[in-house]
Amino acid sequence: MEWQADWGLRGRMLVTMVLLGVLYVVAIAVLWELFTSVLIIVVFFGIFTFAQVFYSDKLALKSMGAREVDASEYPQLHRMTERLCQQADLPKPKIAVADSNVPNAFATGHSKDSSAVCVTTGLMNTLNDEELEGVIAHELAHIKNRDVMVMTIASFLSTIAFLMVRYGMFFGGRGRGGRGGAGILVAILVSLVIWVISFILIRALSRYREFAADRGGALITGNPAALASALRSIDDTMERTPETDMREQAEMNAFFIIPIKKGFIGKIARTHPQTEKRIEKLQELERELHT
User: Fold this and answer.
1) Which pLDDT tens digit goes with each residue over 90-117?
2) Strand 66-68's sheet: what is its strand order?
3) What is the dihedral of CA 268, 272, 276, 278, to 10 degrees?
4) Judging by DSSP bridges, how do beta strands 94-98 and 116-120 pair with one another?
5) 243 among known catalytic residues
6) What is the mean predicted confidence (pLDDT) over 67-72?
7) Model confidence band, residue 270 (pLDDT cutoffs 50, 70, 90)
8) How far apart are CA 225 and CA 287, in angstroms?
9) Which one of 139, 248, 280, 286 is the catalytic residue?
C-alpha cells in the first residue's frame, strides 16, 4: 500500500491552528494589560518565536538529556533510519540518544529538514530490530505528517500562558488606567483560561496524530505487526519502570510514542489513545495489507 495523506489529521491540525491563532490574539491583549508596552510585547514574542523556530529541537533534546550521535557510535541505528527515510521519501533527520531506562522515542523539529529523532537506551535494550524499525518509522511518520510542528507551536503558546499566570503578579503595579490589581487579576485569569484551552487542544490533537503515525509508520515498513509488538513491549516495560524515572520525563509526554501513565501527572495529562486500541488498528491494517 502506498502512503496516503491523512485528511482527518490535516483537518484537525487546521482547526487547531485557527483556534491557536485566536488564543495568540487574546494572549497579546493579556500581555498589554500586564506590561502596557508595545516594545516589551514585541521583544517577548520575538524571543520566544526565535527560540521556537530555531531551537525547539535542541531544547526538546536537552530537556530529555539526549545528545546527537553520529554513525560511528550507533551504526545500526543510522543505517536503519537512513533506509526508512528512503522508503518514506524524507531527508534523514538528526539522530539522538537519551541515556534513560524508560523505553521511549520521539520526533522534534519545526520542518522536515530540521527534524530529529530521539530514542532512549531503554528502548534499544527492550526491542528487537524489527520492533525498533517500526518505532522509528512511526516517528518518521510524525515528521512526514508535519504534526510535530503544530504540536511545537501549541506547546509554545501553552508555555507563554503558563508564564503569564506564574509571573503576572510581579507586574501588578503596571496595570493601565489605574485599574491596578483588579485589571491584573483579570489578565491572569484569562491567561489561565488560555493555558487550559491550549492544554486541551494539545491532548485532543495528540491522540489522533498517534493513530495517524501508527498507520503511516506501518505503511513505511510494510510490517504493522512489528509496530504492534513494539507498542506492547514498551507498554509492559513502562509499567515496571520506577516512578522517579517517569517523573523526569513527564514534560515530554505529548511527543512520546507511549505516554507516561503512572501517577497523577499521567492521569490528567493523557495525550495518547489506549495502547490496546492502537494495536487493534494495526492488526486491522495487517489484515488489510494481506488482502
Assistant:
1) 999 999 999 988 899 999 887 888 899 9
2) 66-68, 94-98, 116-120, 105-108
3) 170
4) parallel
5) no
6) 95
7) low
8) 10
9) 139
Q: In this model, does residue 172 exceed pLDDT 70?
A: no
- Indicate yes or no: pTM above 0.85: no
Q: Which three cell numbers stand for residue 74?
A: 550507533
Whole-angstrom CA distances from 59 to 52, 78, 186, 187, 223 are 9, 22, 32, 28, 33
More confidently predicted of 6 and 239? 6
The grid coordinates listed for 116 are 530529529
**CA 36, 41, 45: angle at the middle one, nearest 5?**
160
Domain ranges of the chain: 7-290
Q: Are 20 and 201 in contact (CB under 8 A)?
A: yes
Reading the block at residue 13, the C-alpha cell is 491540525
List of E strands, the chain: 66-68, 94-98, 105-108, 116-120
